[in-house]
Design brief:
Elements (H helix, E strand, L loop, with lengths): L7 H41 L2 E3 L1 E23 L4 E5 L6 E2 L4 E7 L2 E6 L4 E4 L1 E2 L8 H4 L4 H4 L7 E2 L5 E2 L4 E16 L11 E5 L8 E8 L6 E6 L11 E17 L4 E3 L2 E8 L2 E6 L1 E6 L2 E5 L6 E3 L9
Antiparallel strand pairs: 1-21, 2-11, 2-15, 3-5, 3-10, 4-7, 5-6, 7-11, 8-9, 11-14, 12-13, 12-15, 13-14, 15-20, 16-17, 17-18, 19-20
């Protein structure tokens, strides 16, 4: 019997070296595949994100409401039964004790005089004797809308009874608006606000908070800075109330993500995405004013797709 040992050692070394090279090549290939896959995934990720350019502009903290017009006004009634005759034009400015109409009775003429200075009108909506300020503030505008007043108008030569309304005198120096506040909105007396009323004027009107009601929803009484004649004839008006303005770099609120307690946004930089911390200065509805990025930066607006980053 014979044994051969000389060839075993060299053959085993060659096999071991081949397997090592194969493993090394496989590792390199896997690494290359991983790097290629990661790069491809990042490219694919960029295809699915949406971006918007950050803008430097002003956002307004505002809301819209239906406001009740509250005036200093008084109804003038007929002094006796008879036929009324109008002696001044509707809308005329009259002094206190001025004669605005006369009533012809069986015993002669009775004069109708303005009890105070103001603009005279020969129509009314029935709210004039109900809008005492103390009473007004105990109900919200929503509840006042349920009241059905009795409007009226004076026609020259018509028959009237003693005590019936004949005219209305409006002190045009003070016009107030009463409106319900949205949930979460609070006002304080003497707070300044700005109003827009497209149906009344194309200019913004300043106003001051006079009082806040005690009903629910909470309502506020505002006094306008200037007299608007068209409001002599209106009881309800649509308004947009601007509480505050914020200027700076603006992004959608949905673009902001939180890294722990730190807010930030994702920016697109050519072929990659980067996270930038920001400071939120103000948030108004769907917009946020932030510091930490520049106007023109491409902000990712659907960061939910990047939740795994």
């Amino acid at each position: 019997m014979s044994y051969s040992f000389g060839v075993v050692g060299p053959v085993t070394a060659r096999n071991t070296g081949s397997r090592g090279r194969a493993l090394l090549l496989a590792s390199v290939a896997m690494m290359a595949l991983w790097i290629t896959g990661a790069a491809l995934w990042e490219r694919l990720e960029l295809w699915f994100v949406r971006t918007a350019a950050a803008e430097h502009r002003t956002v307004e903290d505002s809301f819209t409401a239906l406001a009740m017009v509250v005036r200093d006004e008084v109804l003038v009634t007929a002094p006796a039964d008879g036929r009324v005759y109008i002696l001044v034009s509707d809308g005329s400015r009259v002094r206190a004790q001025s004669v605005v109409a006369s009533v012809m009775t069986a015993s002669g003429e009775r004069l109708v005089q303005a009890p105070t200075a103001g603009n005279v009108h020969f129509f009314w909506d029935g709210w004039e004797q109900q809008l005492d300020i103390d009473l007004l503030l105990h109900r919200s505008v929503r509840h006042w809308r349920e009241v059905q007043p009795s409007p009226g108008r004076t026609v020259d030569g018509q028959l009237v009874r003693a005590g019936e309304p004949v005219a209305r005198i409006v002190n045009g120096h003070r016009i107030r608006l009463y409106l319900d506040l949205p949930d979460g909105v609070t006002f304080a007396p003497n707070q300044r606000v700005e109003l827009r009323m497209p149906a009344v004027t194309d200019q913004a009107v300043g106003a001051r908070v006079v009082a806040v009601g005690g009903a629910q929803p909470v309502a506020a009484l505002l006094e306008l800075d200037r007299y608007l004649p068209v409001l002599d004839a209106a009881r309800w008006v649509d308004v947009e109330l601007v509480r505050a303005r914020h200027q700076g770099v603006v992004v959608p609120v949905g673009a902001i993500v939180w890294d722990g307690e730190r807010p930030g946004v994702y920016l697109r930089r050519e072929t990659r995405l980067v996270f930038r911390p920001v400071r939120v200065v103000a948030q108004v509805k769907e917009w946020a004013v932030v510091e930490g990025i520049s106007p023109g930066d491409a902000v990712v607006t659907n960061p939910g797709r990047l939740a795994g980053r």
